[in-house]
Amino acid sequence: MFRGANAISLDIKGRVTIPTRYRQSLLDDCQGQLVCTIDTQQPCLLLYPLPEWEEIELKLSRLSSMNPHERRLQRLLLGYAMEGEMDKNGRFLLSSPLRQHAKLDKQIMLVGQFNKFELWDADVWQQQISLDVETEQQADFELTERLQDFAL
């Protein structure tokens, strides 16, 4: 399980260094094989260990290529998907189209989200977090049944 927000840098070759605390788990679980794609709802990237991504692919394969909405989701997630391997220093290369989609610059936030990571431009991440906190504090939204049952 991945959790926490980590400030990392993008090097001039387009690589990110996975924080040390996640590396052994990624090596044990997937031999450092990762898949990165776009988030269709937010201006960030999604970075999955290969076994987790394979579950997403299975779900995508069950969608109809004849339904325009389902086909669009397949096209976006699979079209941007890039498989790679962490190198011995824990670095992972992000393709130019992925970096462009999320407008990634030098400073990046790697955010654990259970079975995957989100990769955000650091400034965009701060804006999103500010918006999320403000929305939560205003409580100006309808609570789903799951949120109504959630307590800290």
Q: How many beta-strand segments?
A: 8
Task: Report the C-alpha radius of gyration, rounded.
Answer: 17 Å
Report, as a whole number of angstroms, the end-to-end distance: 19 Å
In the sheet with the most strands, the strands line up as 1-7-8-4-3-5
The largest sheet, given as strand count, sense and whether it forms a barrel, is: 6 strands, antiparallel
- Average pLDDT rating: 96
Element-level helix/strand string: EEHEEHHEEHEEHH
Sum up the overall morphology in one term: globular
Instruction: Assess the beta-strand content as a share of residues.
Output: 25-35%
User: Approximately how much helix is present in the residues?
Assistant: 40-55%
Topology:
Blueprint lengths: L4 E5 L5 E3 L2 H11 L2 E6 L6 E5 H12 L6 H13 L1 E4 L5 E3 L2 H6 L5 E7 L2 E6 H17 L6 H4 L4
Antiparallel strand pairs: 1-7, 2-6, 3-4, 3-5, 4-8, 7-8
Q: What can you tell me about this protein's structure?
A:
Helices cover 41% and strands 26% of the residues. The protein is of the alpha+beta class. Strand 7 and strand 8 form a beta hairpin. It is globular and about 45 Å long. The mean pLDDT is 96.
